């Protein structure tokens, strides 16, 4: 089975066709292949409706991870074309997330607190150092948990196939309180800056529907789970700090750092 055209490109990997029914995810940093392979072996056994995972494949000079190919646009792509569906998709996003959080991986994944602590420890952002001790103290006082957490759950990681929605990109999956994972989604929906290479009309469209999508997701998720906004808000500070360590646009970095500084001061 040979490698076909590149059909996707993310922050850490390129996605290629692999025959007609699979895709090959090729990482630019080989260390990430082992990390994702271990995590997806667990996700596959948990049977949460993720794309079927076929393991490591070496072909045509490339080494990557093979997955079932899911045909269909992402929820984000659908929102760009049909912004009037923001309420419908906000509800669906919350329903999918609440269902995901009903799964318990029984300690087979890294804890979200450990992952956040690692991310925060590596941040060398200008202006962050005076804030580090307060943020680390805040994280240490937060509770643990045993729910499956996706770690990067947003409309771009939900594919809308003919068979129903499919959640992809599980490399950040961890174990912990569901409230932390939901708070991460709210953080992304509220503050994420879309890539500058997108058409201006797409960026403007998302800016207009962002508030509706966010509010519908949050209201629906809290209604389904019985959690409170206060429980989710406790995770905002360490989540914002950890996101500074990701490959995000400078505009978003400035926004998050300003929010962190204001929260602490």
From TrEMBL:
One of its GO terms (molecular function) is transferase activity. Keywords: Transferase. It comes from the Bacteria. The keyword RNA-binding does not apply. The keyword Transferase applies. Residues 5-203 form the Aminoglycoside phosphotransferase domain. This is Aminoglycoside phosphotransferase family protein. It comes from Paenibacillus whitsoniae. The lineage of its organism: Bacteria, Bacillati, Bacillota, Bacilli, Bacillales.
